[in-house]
Amino acid sequence: MSREGVTPQSEDFSAWYNELVIKAQLVDRGPVRGTMVIRPYGYRVWELIQADLDGRIKDAGHENACFPMFIPESYLKREAQHVEGFSPELAVVTHAGGKELEEPLVVRPTSETVIGEYMAKWIDSHRDLPLLLNQWANVVRWEMRPRMFLRTTEFLWQEGHTAHADEEDAMRETLWALDAYEKVARDLAAMPVVPGEKTPGERFAGAVRTYTIEGMMRDGRALQAGTSHYLGTNFAKAFEIDYQDADGELVLAHTTSWGMSTRMIGGVIMTHGDDKGLVLPPRLAPYQVVIVPLGRKEQAETTAAKAHEVAAELKAAGVRVHVDDKRPQLSPGFKFNDWEMRGVPIRLELGMRDIDNGVVTLARRLPTEEGQGKEAIPFDEVAARVPGILEDFQAFLLRRAEEFRDSRTAPVDSWEAFTAQVAQGWALALHCGRTACEDEIKAETAATPRCIPAAGEPDSGVCVKCGEPSAYGKRVIFGKSY
Ligand SMILES: [Zn+2]
């Protein structure tokens, strides 16, 4: 068995990504263009994201439900902006059961419409509010330029859908979801995302306000990693989601929707990966530790037995661990490279000499402030020390990503500085707020407004592009994006 590594990230970022997702066994290409098969190694990463986010969603009082994937076409047409926004991406079923259907069915691209229909049915009085629903589902949006995890025709996500008595409560909900996404990205994926509001030109189809978390990838591009929308009464009007208030008056509800998808996995790959391959943050790593027993024949049996002993202790300490003892035909060097390519945070090597010395040899996926090269750890200290080393590694990745993002972000006040800055990272610029001006910027530089950062300092002046007075009262982050 021979395998070249992946094209180095520094040489060709795009080729690196496309090769890596396949070679690291995260995904395989699906039989239909733009679809992906998520392999067990990639699905485990999703499960870890899902478990954390689902806990947050339930703790905040939401309940999971599951709505049908087929939506009557007429539902989508009820909210004009919504259908206009999604039309080009829809997959529509026209035939089923051996005949043409009376009404075509849309395979859900998102579920505001079908859930709106049932919210209207289930909500009568103010006592039924807020209605806090979430579903874990697959959705379909036909992709012309597919890319594994980032843009696939079918993907997995959760979609929260909630109905509230008034704008204030719906906005509280919208920002709660944004905050939950920021925590998942930061605490679990070690992605230092920037939360903020989208400009009107970048809003979700049918939303009054759209909020986003934006991460910077290692090529300087932005990735929108989760969005939360305040829908006002747009969908409530279209689906008659109303209720009797305390005075018996019939009032429209205010709704929200919010989603985070398998796209996050692409974000993890591009935030932390390097020339050698994946670098997984320990909290999302299917295997946090891989033990490679060394030696041949009887020696291999001895080291493998000891490796399983160490693995059992680590497992008892709550560590996800794998022993690589089923591939005797492969050299140790090959295995080390393979696990590095697959992003395992910590590798433990175990040879006869280690056993004689009563130690395992520990190697981190990347040198950190806490440890540069390999180090020997006595057997009786492994279970006690490894969890702390994993936590340090997790914190190191977040710090490193923050430093990288900050080094590629700068305020700019001239068009010349703007174009130079978005060629390598993010520009903080004053903007007039006009969509036509955003379009010109995009046409000339491929950069778009990523968000109006929630934490941005008050600032005003003239638009970096057209010179008209700035909007928003603060600088906007511009960058190229995925
Ligand atoms: Zn402008």
Automatic annotation (TrEMBL):
Name the InterPro entries for this protein.
aa-tRNA-synt_IIb, aa-tRNA-synth_II, aa-tRNA-synth_II/BPL/LPL, Anticodon-bd, Anticodon-bd_dom_sf, Pro-tRNA-ligase_IIa, Pro-tRNA-ligase_IIa_arc-type, Pro-tRNA_ligase_II_C
Q: Name one GO molecular function term.
A: ligase activity
* UniProt keyword terms in alphabetical order: Aminoacyl-tRNA synthetase, ATP-binding, Cytoplasm, Ligase, Nucleotide-binding, Protein biosynthesis
Query: Pfam families in the record, alphabetically?
Result: HGTP_anticodon (PF03129), ProRS-C_1 (PF09180), tRNA-synt_2b (PF00587)
Instruction: Give the top-level enzyme category.
Output: ligase
Q: Where in the cell is it found?
A: Cytoplasm
Q: Which reaction does it catalyse?
A: tRNA(Pro) + L-proline + ATP = L-prolyl-tRNA(Pro) + AMP + diphosphate
Q: Which intervals hold domain Aminoacyl-transfer RNA synthetases class-II family profile?
A: 33-281
Query: Which Enzyme Commission number(s) are listed?
Result: 6.1.1.15
Has UniProt tagged this entry with the keyword Protein biosynthesis?
A: yes
Q: What does this protein do?
A: Catalyzes the attachment of proline to tRNA(Pro) in a two-step reaction: proline is first activated by ATP to form Pro-AMP and then transferred to the acceptor end of tRNA(Pro).
**What note about domains is in the entry?**
Consists of three domains: the N-terminal catalytic domain, the anticodon-binding domain and the C-terminal extension.
Q: How does it assemble?
A: Homodimer.
Family that this chain belongs to = Belongs to the class-II aminoacyl-tRNA synthetase family. ProS type 3 subfamily.
- What is the protein name given in its UniProt record? Proline--tRNA ligase
Species of the source: Actinocorallia aurantiaca
Q: What lineage, starting at the top, does this entry show?
A: Bacteria, Bacillati, Actinomycetota, Actinomycetes, Streptosporangiales
